[in-house]
Write a structure and sequence with these properties.
Two copies of one chain form a homodimer. By secondary structure, chain A is an alpha+beta fold. The first copy, chain A, has helices at 16-35, 58-62, 82-91, 135-151, 166-175, 183-192, 198-207, 212-219, 236-254, 300-303, 318-327, 350-362, 376-385, 396-400, and strands spanning 39-40, 46-48, 65-68, 74-77, 100-109, 121-130, 159-165, 261-263, 277-283, 292-296, 311-317, 340-344, 367-369, 390-394, 403-408, 414-418. Chain A has two domains: 16-327, 2-Layer Sandwich (BirA Bifunctional Protein, domain 2); 340-424, Anticodon-binding domain (Rossmann fold, 3-Layer(aba) Sandwich), CATH 3.40.50. Chain A contains 14 helices and 16 strands. Chain A has an eight-stranded mixed sheet. In chain A, strand 3 and strand 4 (74-77) form a beta hairpin. The longest helix of chain A has 20 residues, at 16-35. At the A-B interface, helix 1, strand 1, strand 2, strand 3 and helix 3 of A face helix 1, strand 1, strand 2, strand 3 and helix 3 of B.
């Protein structure tokens, strides 16, 4: 006997009871995506490491699991879906009808310190619309995220979609005196604001050489109301961002989901590739990390060798979502579904039990039989342990008159049934 | 614009039309496994490389994609499921009710020369029963493979399950004069026989130092009929193997699947961990590699640090299966399913179209709307291109009387419908 080998830290084993929960999450994701007319796609799990270079921001690159294959090529286990998606769109850009509406439910790896809400192996739903510059597309992908959260049973009291626009934020930062070459770094600090004490937030901006007056302006960004922003104080980019946001919110009203959405200028999103709309789904208690996040990335496909192709999308991870579902008691009771267990009173009658089981399976019932050559009482006990709804007992006496016993496992009620009637059960 | 980065050789992109086919295969797999009472499970995609050392045979170890993580630990992208399964069973052996009946549908990587039926990234259904030594368990897993093939529409003319037993084969080899220390290597040569010219087969055995008389006996193994084997010529292990096979075939008769099953002594299966039953699913034309393969592995869980736990199971890959489905014309026409496209005659009416779409989605219809600010005629053309079944047109005139146009896209017939009636559609 070898010593037990342990699984990698930050990964999970999915025993059947865990896999049922994962499948429930996947089914809600899939149903919501299909409801809005998105189509499922997928790509390879390992891709050339170049696919992520300079596209995803330094943080993700550092977190990648990279190997060298026998041909000497460096491959990464994918840490996110968007580069694969951009590659696939670039490859067939001209032949694909627009808009391209794709989703995927897949596994990813990132080397992170495992902690609450963060694992090294996790799953994401990715939903993306490519080929449309219209805020109609942004509104729709946001609407899918709300549809998902509502499908899980969450109310407007429990979650919020925080929405902003990179163009507006950049313009507001410029208005606050931030130089163009500092925008990116300041955005990253703003992104971390919620996790930092205010003194630390100020310190980080100060370290970037941001003057005190600018810091004071940025500090008040969380108080900015969309309807109070005066276009006169904005440059052209800011005016465009503001009007995009106004249009987006008018569509969110049409979707009937305004109550779940809120404007939040302090939402920056770390990834460099976002160009306009950015949004994140949060629990309102702010106990957890973001449940989902995404935005508009109008330059990304061109970076992957394709034509210029606007895009908007997001990812929702399984780890934080499951924590939140548990916390709010929203996970349904999920049991194995066995419609029948067919038992026999002796090994001689086992073939008859198998025959009956096969007939029931042809009629799309989930059926189990004994596999352990157990006594009848042990078969019944096992049938009960796997939650079989009904039990059929094949015994000598009943069989001689073409019958078997049929027991409802819940009520315990039992009756004799003709085998010929099982065909109509 | 960067140059196009290409995906790794031996992998596939799954555009929606490809993913629909993959999902169809997965659904048939899943439905069949559930029909027999198996429960879905999963484990991490990367595991410590030690998990495969000395367990899976040298070939698989050579084919693994291995990386060193930032903690200096060697991890492999899993090339097969069984070691993970054995690890998970070993971890919870005592608390898991027996038999343990698990299945998984997952992605694997092996470094192989990409060729027809072999890719570097592929999917497998794995079905395993652990905790039972009875041939009842072997019969059931074989029955699931037949159920799958029949669900795909294949007949007994098109596929065969070839079945043998390692104990019987070992005993027959000993009877043919093969020394104990040569059994393993001879089995590997036998396994390759179908792919080799006879002269090469003889040569390989001869190279192993097998005497001519033994080679002549082994050459005739493909003619051996189960009912003709005389137990008197066998040692104890052979007698056990023979009786296991006889019992197995009696159960296969009870499952009503004898017509799909055939005894074939030349089936050895390369993997060292098989101890009794071995089987493979083949197309009868023998044009393709094996569609599925598996067997009994009674010592494997103990090797992973668990108690001794008998097991039997198999894997069915997606690559050969899909080739076979295509070849026999068994793939159904799979289209995106869009129940409604809701168009509007102007941007002003778009919110109304969205509102109607949302109501239909609440009633579980798959609904698409315009995302491109297109003219009505272009919206209709797009609706047609995505195969929308019905079209709703929101126009000024109809809307003023609380109505919209409803068009059946197939027949082209159109009628006016009250918006209030859409709630009951």
């Amino acid at each position: 006997m070898s010593p037990q080998i342990e699984r990698v830290r930050g990964t999970r084993d999915f025993y059947p009871e865990d896999k049922r929960i994962q499948n429930y999450i996947f089914e809600v994701w899939r149903a919501s995506a299909l409801r809005f007319g998105f189509e499922e796609m997928d790509g390879p799990l390992l891709e050339p490491v170049e696919l992520w270079k300079e596209k995803s921001g330094d943080e993700i690159e550092e977190q990648m699991y990279v190997l060298t294959d026998r041909g000497g090529r460096k491959l990464a286990v994918r840490p996110e879906m968007t580069p694969t998606l951009a590659r696939m769109v670039a490859q067939r850009f001209r032949e694909l009808p627009k808009p391209i509406k794709w989703f995927s439910i897949q596994r990813f790896w990132r080397y992170e310190k495992p902690q609450s809400g963060r694992l090294r192996e996790f799953w994401q739903l990715n939903i993306d619309t490519l080929g449309s510059e219209s805020m109609m597309a942004d509104a729709e992908v946001i609407a899918t995220s709300v549809h998902i959260m509502r499908s899980f049973g969450f109310s407007a009291d429990e979650f919020t979609v925080r929405i902003s626009n990179r163009r507006l934020l950049n313009s507001m930062l410029r208005a606050a005196g931030i130089q163009e070459d500092k925008l990116r770094e300041v955005c990253r600090v703003i992104d971390k604001r919620e996790k930092l004490p205010n003194s630390e937030f100020r310190h980080m901006l100060s370290e970037l050489g941001i003057p005190e007056r600018s810091i004071e302006s940025i500090e008040k960004f969380d108080l900015v109301k969309l309807e109070k922003i005066d276009a006169k104080n904005l440059d052209a980019e800011g005016i465009r961002g503001l009007s995009e946001l106004q249009e987006l919110f008018s569509y969110l009203r049409a979707y009937g989901i305004l109550e779940y959405c809120t404007f939040d200028l302090t939402l920056a999103r770390g990834l460099d590739y976002y160009t306009g709309t950015v949004f994140e789904v949060f629990d309102t208690s702010k106990e957890f990390r973001a449940i989902a996040g995404g935005g508009r990335y109008d330059n990304l496909v061109a970076q992957f060798g394709g034509d210029k192709c606007p895009g908007v999308g997001y990812a929702m991870g399984d780890v934080v979502l499951e924590l939140f579902l548990r916390k709010r008691g929203k996970l349904p009771q999920l049991r194995q579904q066995i419609d029948f267990f067919v038992a026999s009173t002796s090994k001689e009658l086992y073939p008859k039990a198998v025959e009956i089981a096969q007939k029931l399976r042809e009629r799309n019932y989930n059926v189990a039989v004994d596999l352990m050559e157990r006594s009848l009482s042990k078969q019944v006990k096992y049938a009960d342990s796997i939650g079989a709804a009904r039990l059929i007992i094949v015994g000598e006496e009943e069989l001689s008159s073409g019958c078997a016993k049929l027991r409802d496992m819940k009520s315990g009620s039992e009756k004799k049934i003709k085998l010929s009637e099982l065909e109509k059960i």
